[in-house]
Amino acid sequence: MKNPLANLFKKKDAGEAPSVTPAPSGKKENFFQKLIKNRLGKSSVKGEQIVGVDLTTNEIRLAQISTNKANQWVLEKFYSHKFDGLPENSTVLEHPDKLADELKVAIQKAKIDTSNAAIAIPVTSAIIRVVTSPLMTDEELNNAVKTDSLWENLVQLTDNLDDYSIFHQVINRNATENTMDILFVASKLADINSYTDIIKKGGLNAVIIDVKCFALKSAVDQINQISGSIEESNLTAVLEFGLDENYVMILYENNPIITDIFIRGQDRNTLIASDNQEEMEALVRRYITQVKQAVQDFETKYEKRIRNLKVTSNLPNVETYLASFRKNLVNTGFNLFDPLDGIKIPAQLEENVRLENRSYLSTVLGLAFRQLDVFGYFKFVTAVKNINLLPNRDSMMQQKRAKAFSNFAFKGIVGVVAAIYIVLFGLSFWQITTLNNKISDYDQVVQNHEIKSGEVAKLSKELGKLKKQMELSNSIKSNKKISFRVLAQIASAVPKRVKFTKLDYNGSNQILIEGMAASDQDILKLISNLNNKKLISQASLASMTLPNSSNANNAMKGFLIACKLENA
Predict the structure, then answer these.
(1) How confident is the model at residue 284 (pLDDT cuts 50, 70, 90)?
(2) Of the chain's two ends, which shows fewer C-beta atoms within 10 Å, N or C?
(3) What digits encode the pLDDT tens for the residues 530-541?
(4) Is the pTM of this model over 0.90?
């Protein structure tokens, strides 16, 4: 069996890991354009509801998910329609009319009211590769894609490129090495058209065509986000185990690393119904060996430990096999993935989803989580969340955009006209009410005006008096500064064995210093020091008194010195 998932998202070494950076746009949108697109985008996403459709040869599953006012995910509609009449080993595309008829019945029973459908094709119907090309801008990349020269050089397909529906998106840009990684997903146009015909005949319009493994990733990512587990969101390992598809998908830092698990044709018969214990054990050994190898390869390369594998399976006896898996891989847990964990389920739908194994609902719920990207908001979102193999997706998006613009314009015109009338009516009512209130209080206003006028006159008179007093006070000059400097110089002129008993300032130009000194020389030294000061023009001895004490040791002479101040 050819492995369509080989080398998918093989992550480079840590030192070489490039960052995801969008190419610079040629034009920058102004604030008004961004605002309009934002409003249009929100309204279009809200209005364009999508129903997930999972088609199998014996069952059709429908799911529709929305959010409530508390921003919680709510399972709005769900229906599982089982039917018979198809051979065991047949495929969906081999019986399109039967599937379309059964889809009509399922839509009627589920009471689906939207025509937009998201479907997923099997991995075996898709070509999935990550190719490396020289670094290009978005414009250069689009030109290369239009001429088919890019895919002819990077992807070697056995058939003509015109026979395929191709989706691509840049996932990594490495400016250092001047290269970029591109996710390439393709499927035969004949298969895509067959699926869309089934959906159309069933009464729906296919707007998104995904691949089942990526729809599963969408469900896992959404449940991880709801649970809020940082560890789970950074590293999650999923095992798809069943009759149709078998692979290990490791979600590491939002990038999947997928390894295909090979099973033989006779192994499928064993999975369906087998009582031979030896055959079952042999199948488990072969299967778990491949799983173990995939896990070990990842752990060796990225140095991350995988402790649990989320399992999705459509086998009724899956728990029996999981028990054997746990015995063969004792250090790794195998737990059935519940795609409804954390989603609010209405009472009328609880019976429909009360199942021991809800993991096989992952595909339809992953499709129900998809949103129609009318305005290109998901252009730089992780590529595997944005895959759409619909051949006419560009023209379909243009129609949706035109419809959204026309609806927005009509609502905008009606809203503007209504707003103008409301504003004019409000202004008129406000003006009339205001004028009536002013007229009713006219007499009181006049009386208050007279009272306030008298108070203003009285206050004006008092203010005039205060201004005159302020002018007089401003004309008075202070001598505090000169007095402080004179006292400082007198204090610095005092010699030892001299003390002052009194300072007398006449307020003009003279200071009388009265004190006592031990000797005449001390008095003369004081007078000399005073005469050397800048602010004292002349210091002279006015009088001197002899000591009255008979004790010569305590004899102190009194003195009175007159100091004439400079420029006084």
Answers:
(1) very high
(2) N
(3) 999 888 889 998
(4) no
Q: Can you state the angle between helices 277-302 and 318-328, rounded to 10 degrees?
A: 60
354: left (phi over 0), alpha (psi -120 to 50) or beta: beta
Distance CA 143, CA 139 (A): 6
CA–CA distance, 376 with 235 (Å, rounded to integer): 28
Q: Are 308 and 237 in contact (CB under 8 A)?
A: yes
From the list 261, 255, 233, the residue with the least C-alpha distance to 302 is 255
Judged by DSSP in three states, 220 sits in: helix
Cα-based distances in Å from 287 to 5, 196, 284, 291: 17, 35, 5, 6
- Is there a contact between 361 and 183 (Cβ–Cβ < 8 Å)? no
Q: What are phi and psi of 455, to 5 degrees?
A: -65, -35
- Between CA 77 and CA 65 the distance in angstroms is 7
Q: Name the helix (H) or strand (E) containing 323.
A: helix 318-328
To the nearest 10 degrees (0 to 180), the angle between helices 442-475 and 393-440 is 90
CA separation (Å) from 278 to 184, 282, 285, 560?
42, 6, 11, 134
Calpha distance 515→560 (Å, rounded)? 7
Rounded Cα–Cα distance for residues 201 and 104 (Å): 8
Query: Residue 61 pLDDT > 90, yes or no?
Result: yes
Which position has the token pair 């001197």? 544
Write out 196-218 in H/E/C secondary structure.
Answer: HHHHHHCCCEEEEEEEHHHHHHH
Mean predicted confidence (pLDDT) in 61-65 = 94
Strand partners, 514: 502, 560
Instruction: Write down the H helix ranges in 387-537.
Output: 393-440, 442-475, 480-492, 520-531
3-state secondary structure 107-151: HHHHCCCCCEEEEEECHHHEEEEEEEEECCCHHHHHHHHHCCHHH
- Quickly count: other Cβ atoms within 10 Å of residue 409's Cβ: 11
Predicted local confidence at residue 372, as pLDDT: 60
Give the list of residues 6+ apart from residue 450 with CB closer than 8 angstroms, or none. none
Give CA torsion, residues 347, 353, 356, 362, to 10 deg: -140
Task: Give the per-residue SS3 of 338-359.
Answer: CCCCCCECCHHHHCCCCCCCCH
Return the residue matching tokens 């239009």: 146
Of 44-48, 89-93, 205-209, give the lowest mean pLDDT range: 44-48
Residue type at position 24: P
